[in-house]
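In this supplementary section we document a worked example of the pipeline. Step one takes a protein sequence of length 424 as its only input; no multiple sequence alignment statistics are reported here. Step two produces a three-dimensional model, which step three serialises into structure tokens for compact storage. The input and output of this example are shown verbatim.
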Amino acid sequence: MAITMSAVVQPAASLGARRVHSVRRVGLSRQAVVVRAVAAEQAPSTTAQPYGRVFNFSAGPAVLPVEVLEQAQADLLNWQGSGMSVMEMSHRGKEFQSIIDGAEADLRALLAIPDNYQVLFMQARPESVLVLCPFHPQGGASSQFSAIPLNLSAEGDTLDYIVTGSWSKKAAGEAKKYGKVNVVATGDNKSVPDPSSWKLSPDAKYVHYCDNETIQGVEFKAPPVVGDKVLVADMSSNFCSKPVDVSKYGLIYAGAQKNIGPAGVTIVIVRDDLIGNSRPSTPVMLDYKVQADDKSMYNTPPCWAIYMCGLVFAKMRRDGGLAAVQQANEKKAKVLYDAIAGSNGFYSSPVDAAARSMMNVPFTIPANAELEKEFVSQAAKRSMIQLKGHRSVGGMRASIYNSMPLDGVQQLANFMKEFAANSA
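The serialised model returned by step three reads:
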């Protein structure tokens, strides 16, 4: 099959302060080929990454695979010979239908999602939601804090929540507007409470927990055991970071902007028997039955975000699936946690070893917190950015999601060792 070659070449003047120092062809998926101009900034990145890119340790929106960005760049003006960008095509047309169908098929394959589960690509629409639901939080996976009780319970029902950090606490707080919330257990922001201390309600409609607390860096290593209760999981910051047995859950939800794409779309995986019982007051944009019946296209979906997620899903499948993703993530996490442990106490991890996240690694300089600002500043000069801890926690935090290359984590570990030695 012939490969069509096309490229948009910028004149040197249009690059402003940048200087093109190499051009090479890069093979991409779907037989797209792009001419890659690698630009050196006046203050060049020290990472030796393509395009002068930094190592971005942001908690979200977060780093995406260069290969995926190149594919999106190649498709930007003319997606697959359609003569239009994904951003221009009708969501009712065959072109976008193939994009969303492909994204769902690849996600189903990655997670081995059973046939009796629906995959919904959801978004927040403040203009259509807030009028009907004034308490509704605007956007992202946080919109599911309202959608879950509205779809899975009736007024006055008991709702169980396990609280292990900031996001599960917020979810429980929002649910109080819609039902009787029973806090099964409250963690100390550095561990998962011992299951023997949990107080599950016998009549709870579901049990909600956050699989990975982005801010505190607390991660469950196995699903909570809740008997025959419906288990609901917020997996926003570790979605597709490891294999998951979807059949153990009634519902899984995740914002895309950590591991699988740009901000703008939330994935909801929900079992069929939990659909169709929403409250009459449920805003149409949060009603799972409406979204399932219309195949996530009741209105215009976040087309570009779904397209980008589809590219990421396809890449993960090509790279060996979630088992391979997990192996790579475990290797990166070991490098970073070993650097903390090997610092002779200069750095400290506040999280218990049994609950340390593979995705979000908070750490501190306990002997001199003033050095933390200098650490973040010097790291940025080495092209390692977004290492400042969350404002509610302090210290530092390195988010090492799927797309963070091992080299980035190794460079961070090397810098940590150097900084400790220079600060002694």
